[in-house]
Design goal:
Blueprint: H1 9-12, E1 44-46, H2 55-67, E2 70-74, H3 80-94, H4 98-101, E3 113-117, E4 131-138, H5 140-143, H6 154-179, H7 186-190, E5 195-203, E6 215-218, E7 224-229, E8 235-239, E9 242-245, E10 253-257, H8 259-264, E11 274-276, E12 284-292, E13 298-299, E14 317-318, H9 319-329
Parallel strand pairs: 1-2
Antiparallel strand pairs: 2-10, 3-4, 4-5, 5-12, 6-11, 7-10, 7-12, 8-9, 8-11, 13-14
Helix pairs in contact: 2-6, 3-6
Domain Fe2OG dioxygenase: 194-293
Protein name: Oxoglutarate/iron-dependent dioxygenase
Pfam families: 2OG-FeII_Oxy (PF03171), DIOX_N (PF14226)
């Protein structure tokens, strides 16, 4: 039997009419789609005001980080052309013949460019309803030669998109720094030499979406994530114990703070659980950019945010140590930050 198993979910789909047993969640851990809130969403911040006199935008970003851990941005300075090319080449990649896509396949989570499925096939018991292409993209010249050469425009279109999202990440980190009362450059300086990864998530239609997840509830291990998604809903964010569905708005990005901001801010801002659900009608593509410290960067609460009344809540650690624990542990509702808390 094993020899006929398809490594990728997207190649298995044509042969299934129900969700295979290894994708079925235990009853206590299913999406309960009828309990999701659709009439409320995460804040939308207009970045056009992020200029010299920008205290109101900084305040908005700070409130979104404090109250939601998530916000959407418009007028972010990345052209529609760059966004459309990225989304089109992502779709093209996942519509290539199986043999062509599998040239990128690997189940080794430490490989810097790889196509895989679910989350970490080596450690998990229940699979997630997604395939993904994951790759490093900063410094670009260190990684671009590993990327797929098919579709032919992949490297050019994706490199242009990566440069643009990195510029946006740096602006957002300055704004988040200021919103915490830190120097504008504080967070950028705390990240060492910086790192940037991306994923193209492909969620095929699912015959029984109520039994499984695209990705279960998890928090991101990095600093901030900038998400581009197509027009098919699927992202949900946990707020006050309830799941909120985030409706896609064309030409906006969704930004969420990751575990490292929670630690650097000494819990002033929280890294929030979010998940991806699937549907039975349409494929969905989402493209997160994970902005990260470099592996050797030392993370810990920012000294200006700690004093006698606010002692540091976390130990200092290298980002490499954090990231390894995150991958080994898999996607759990308890976030990885708890492992670095000072008791």
């Amino acid at each position: 039997m094993a020899t006929t198993m398809k490594p990728l979910l997207s190649d298995l789909i044509p042969t299934v009419t129900c969700v295979p047993p290894n994708y079925v969640r235990p009853e206590s851990d299913r999406p309960n789609l009828n309990e999701v809130t659709f009439d409320h969403s995460i804040p939308l911040v207009d970045l056009r005001g992020l200029g010299p006199n920008h205290s109101s935008v900084i305040k908005e970003i700070g409130e979104a980080c404090r109250n939601y851990g998530f916000f959407q941005v418009k007028n972010h300075g990345i052209s529609k052309e760059v966004i459309d090319k990225m989304m089109n080449v992502a779709k093209e990649f996942f519509h290539l013949p199986e043999s062509e896509r599998l040239k990128c396949y690997s189940d080794d989570p430490m490989k810097t460019t790889r196509l895989s499925t679910s989350f970490n096939v080596k450690t998990e018991n229940v699979s997630n309803w997604r395939d993904y292409l994951r790759f490093h993209c900063f410094p670009l010249e260190d990684y671009v030669h590993e990327w797929p050469t098919n579709p032919p425009s992949f490297r050019d279109d994706v490199a242009e998109y990566c440069k643009n999202t990195r510029g946006l990440a740096l602006r957002l980190l300055e704004a988040i720094s200021e919103s915490l009362g830190l120097e504008k450059e504080y967070l950028n300086c705390a990240l060492g030499k910086h790192a940037q990864h991306m994923a193209i998530n492909y969620y095929p239609p699912c015959p029984e979406p109520e039994l499984t997840y695209g990705l279960p509830g998890h928090a991101d291990p990095n600093v901030i994530t900038i998400l581009l998604q197509d027009d098919v809903p699927g992202l949900q964010v946990l707020k006050d114990g309830k799941w909120i569905a985030v409706k896609p708005i064309p030409n906006t990005f969704i930004v969420n703070i990751g575990d490292q901001i929670q630690v650097l801010s000494n819990d002033e801002y929280k890294s929030v659980l979010h998940r991806a659900v699937v549907n039975c009608k349409e494929e969905r593509i989402s493209i997160p950019t994970f902005y990260c410290p470099s592996p050797d960067a030392m993370m810990g609460p920012a000294p200006p945010l700690t004093d006698g009344d606010h002692p540091p809540l976390y130990t200092n650690y290298s980002y490499a140590e954090y990231y390894q624990k995150f991958w080994k542990r898999g996607l759990n509702a308890e976030t990885c930050v708890d492992m670095f808390k000072i008791n």
